[in-house]
Every structure is written in C-alpha cells, then in structure tokens.
C-alpha cells in the first residue's frame, strides 16, 4: 500500500461465501484485505445447499475445487420451479450441480482465505461510512462497545439482503415485495418414507424434504398469500404446523438444528458502486431461492469484481475499470430476479397453475428449451459486452485440453494464479510482439489445442481459436479466429481496456 494512512486496501463487510470469495480473489491479485463480520461466530445455518457448473468452474480455475468435491455430492439433477432439467456433459467439465451445505462452503472458503493471509474480524459490524477522494473511513461497532475504525481505499458490502453498507451509502433497493412465506429448517424426520424427497405440490402450497446428511433432512414449506412481519421469529412449531397443513403429517419431526424464513421479495441495488463503496452478493440483490442460484450469483459477483478492484488498488488500471463491474453484473442479477419471479409464479397452487405447469413441462423436453433454461440457471451462457465479435468473446473460456512446452495441461490450470492469460495457440510472433508492453501483468503462454473445435453453450461447437486473451475471471476479452493473421490492433485495445496502459521501456 502506497498510502501509509491506510489500514488496508479493501475492507469487506460480511464473511459469507461472497465476502470470503472476494477476499481470496483480492489476495491472489496482491491486494491487502480485511473482512469484518458483525456475528461473533458461525451460526451453523445453511440456507444454500449447492453450487452450479459455473461456480464449480471458477473454483477449478483457482485449483481448489477438489476440496469442495470431497465434501459434497454431485447430482445429475436440476429443476426450473420443480420441473426437471437434463444436463449436457459436453458443455462443461463440471456439468452437474454439487450438493453441499452453505456451512461447509463457508468453512472451506475460510480455510483457503486464511492460507492466503486474509484477516477476518468477528463481532465487528459496520456502523458508519465516510468517503473522501483518497479512501473510505469505516466505523465499526464492536462487541465490547468500543468503537473502532478502519481506513481503506475501498469498502465492499457483502453483508446480506439487509445490508448496512447499502443503507449507509444511500443506494436505492427497488423491487417487488413478498407475496408468500416459506419456512426452512434442518430436522430429523424418522417417519419420512424414502420416496419423499424434493418437492410435493399441495392445495395450499408445497413442501420438500432433502437429505443432505445421514439422519437429517432440509425441510422447506411454502404457503401463499400470508406474509408475516419480517422481524417475526421463525420457530420449530411453526415449521411443524406448516408441514402438517400441507402434507397432513409432520413425519415425526424432531431435533431441529435451526429454523428460518424466506419469501419471494425480489429487489436489486440501483447501482453496484457509489464512489469507493461497492456491493456484491445479497447486498446487491435478493430473490426467491428458486433453482439454487443465489449463492452462485454472489460468488460470481466476487470473481468478476476481485481482479478489477485489485488492479485499480495496485495502480495497474484506471478507476474507470470498476464501472464495468456494474455494467456486467447488474444485467446478470436482473435476469436472475426475472427468472426467479417466473419460478415463484409457476409454483403457486391452483388448477390454472397446474394446467400451466403441464404445458410448460411438455415444452421442457425439447432440447432447445432445456438448453436455454439450463444455461440460465448454471450461468454457463453468460456473455459480457467486451467489444470483440469472436463467438468466444465475453463468454467464459472452455477448459480445453492443451499441449505446452512443459507438458499437457488445461486452460483452467493456467488460471490458477488468477492472472490475465494471453494464450497463443499458433506460435505467431505477432501476438508476442503486440503484448510486449503488458508482460509485467499478463502471462503469455504458447500452446497447442488438442481439439479442432471448442464447445460454446447455446452456440454449439466452433473452430478452435488461434489466440485468445483471458481475464482472471475466466472470461475471454479478445480472440482470433482460425485462418489469417491475428488482429493485433484490437488485441492491444483489449489489453489496454482491461489491464491498463502498456508499460514504458
């Protein structure tokens, strides 16, 4: 840090999956970071219970996916409002969802963060924010009532749907209110028949019972047109009574670990950045947890923001690079709110909705419909506007098999360092010459593709590119098509846009 008046480069509010992933990304890129969390310790609650393909790819890009695979269980199933989807193994090296509790995800991310030197301060909630031209003063309310302050270049609110950072920054949170309530808890269900898993629709709503761990079930009940006060506590008895109303029995429910409540309110921050304050995860967007997209959306926010924020903090890129975070991620969040509203509506009880579900279910069996919904839920089909017209530009890079002078590898393995990657698949001197001013921050690797064609979700197979510039988040910033010389003018433009001006000398 160049400014000795700074306590750290970045303060992150919130030690959930989004905040921890962002902290790891910042440390990998060389930025100093402190995570502050208002809780005194982990609660053990696990609202989320899985990770989709794109999140698994992101963890693979960093070389830590095996830790998560060792704890969770891959399941070749997914759904859109309870209507089953098929997955395509050709679209990703990790096509299936990983069933893993949020508590386990947080534990593994916290262990990784500690290895990278991330500092986490518990019992430290944000209570005040003051920005100036050089940084942001973050006031903390601590457990012993003694106020504390941290000065940083930037503050990122990853502090959940009721984000204090968002409120103190005055960022609007428009959207739609809840129309239903759902109760969720991890309990024992000794009388549950083996076939009772996933969702069952009932006249008054629906319920599901999912076995994440031996002897324990995640029970969720959803009832419509009753919205309690958001501060009303959720109790075990409320969950039991709701299950009885829907299923006619409580299946011997006992021994709750925790109980909570959620609804179908859908809101999104009007802007993801206000000067030196940024938002990510639930602080930037809340929605009905249909299709298991929430945690994944937040982790992918973090991976999009981390390298950009570190580049600005370290003086390698102009501050305007941070504007691309909102430009790229706000539309993605908006799409998730849109599809979860649709799923919540499709889940409502009634004979008219039953008929609509029958029609919708008959459409899902068509490959194009299944592919469209699958790409949306897994986030494999995201394409950012990067200013290049190659079919791969803006998309996440496939984990293609490569041969390098050092041996066989894959694209994801080359991204373990979280650095920009310029991959030359033809050995052209033009690419290396064009990148000479960026070799201090961009890795140039010469390799050969093992395959003549690369898969693009929702786009089919395309001829393997001859060269491509890959951002640290795994999205392609520039690519050269097979045949002809690469356009080095557009390559230099992409290098400047995403990684700052060329070094002199």
UniProtKB/TrEMBL annotation:
<dbReference type="InterPro" id="IPR036188">
    <property type="entry name" value="FAD/NAD-bd_sf"/>
</dbReference>
<dbReference type="InterPro" id="IPR050641">
    <property type="entry name" value="RIFMO-like"/>
</dbReference>
<feature type="domain" description="FAD-binding">
    <location>
        <begin position="7"/>
        <end position="339"/>
    </location>
</feature>
<dbReference type="Pfam" id="PF01494">
    <property type="entry name" value="FAD_binding_3"/>
</dbReference>
<keyword id="KW-0560">Oxidoreductase</keyword>
<keyword id="KW-0285">Flavoprotein</keyword>
<keyword id="KW-0274">FAD</keyword>
<dbReference type="GO" id="GO:0004497">
    <property type="term" value="F:monooxygenase activity"/>
</dbReference>
<protein>
    <submittedName>
        <fullName>FAD-dependent monooxygenase</fullName>
    </submittedName>
</protein>
<dbReference type="InterPro" id="IPR002938">
    <property type="entry name" value="FAD-bd"/>
</dbReference>
<keyword id="KW-0503">Monooxygenase</keyword>
<dbReference type="Pfam" id="PF21274">
    <property type="entry name" value="Rng_hyd_C"/>
</dbReference>
